Write the structure tokens for this entry.
Amino acid sequence: MAELNVVLSNPEQGTTREQELIAKVQGGQTELFYELVRPYERRVYAAALAILRNETDAEDAAQEAMLKALANIRTFRAESRFSTWLIQISVNEALMKRRRERTRMTEAIEDNRDDEGEYTPRDFADWREIPSEALERKEVRQRLADALASLDRKYREVFVLRDMEQLNIQETAEALGISVASVKTRLLRARLMLRDLLAGGWEQGWFSRLPFEKGTKPW
Amino acid sequence: MVVTCETVWKEISNYIEGDVDASLRAAMDEHFRKCQRCTSVLEGTRNVVQLYGDERMIEVPVGFGRRLERRLAQEVRVGRRTWSTWSAWLIPVAALALIAGGLRWANSLSVAHPLQSEHAQAGHNIPPDLPVVVSVGAKEFHVAGCEFIHNKDKIRTLTAKEAIREGYVPCVRCMRKYLQAATVSQDLNESEADSREGAEERPRGE
């Protein structure tokens, strides 16, 4: 568990430099805002993309979220992580955007209830570890992205916020407006489904049985 | 405590989160030692969490950061411009307000042109020779000793007629009896009006 905690814990707890920047921007030096948010711009974008599934919409939402964060910087309180605050604004912005554009979103009618019953893993063969270094390869990243894209929205959103954006369970629940129990249920299923999708050997099996359209980047 | 494979699959995500109690954790650890299938599930799930949690998994469109920076810079400039436009207006407006305020203040010091009060009464029965007092900076005249006199140390005495000519208005408290009489007089019918004719004549006669 110890080594996993390292992975799950937030890599950038509010640093002194960040706290200084926040204070300065709150004090009116708004030209420093980009320097402040730059380390999180990718995560802000990824959060929006998990919800909107369209790069252009996600970029719009991410920009709008950043502008809102700038406009409301004085309401930020140090008791929460700045990165979490930004990501929650981004999620909110993306959810609002999706609601506004519901008519042309094919996913809008998707069932949002938690599935009854338990998910049974399909692949029990010995797991072949995919080392982090493999992420240097574009096709590996694409393969993972495609697997995630194939998940239903409700699973994908929870998984992205918890496991990619590193929000905790409670923060994920708040950002999406769902219960903690739902987050846990969906997270379990998302993780197990991804495991099944990626099982079978990343060096041989994967690229011959791609069930996804090539080139899609879902989140 | 003994757990089944189904229980392990149900709890495996919480197990990874460190969100299971000690006895369940011990039972699951025991299960993993014996069950190859569940160990495979655990290893795969951990691997998934680790891989997707890697910063490299987040890709942004080419030029994303540059466009964001430009948009924010634009916003900051607009914010500044809005403020500078405001301040450009605010400075002369504030200056005018100060000048106007200064004039009003100066006027209020001048006994020749005191400010008109909203309490100014159209009709009243105040005897023109009634001794009244006015004070510096005030708009009303009072009966000496009225508790509503401002700046009591800077009062001067004059007649009601003079006070009215200078633009002072009667204090609605201490001059109440004259003012009420005037108000009532406007509502009275002719037969009653005869009795107070004299009282009305005096201010009119000024």
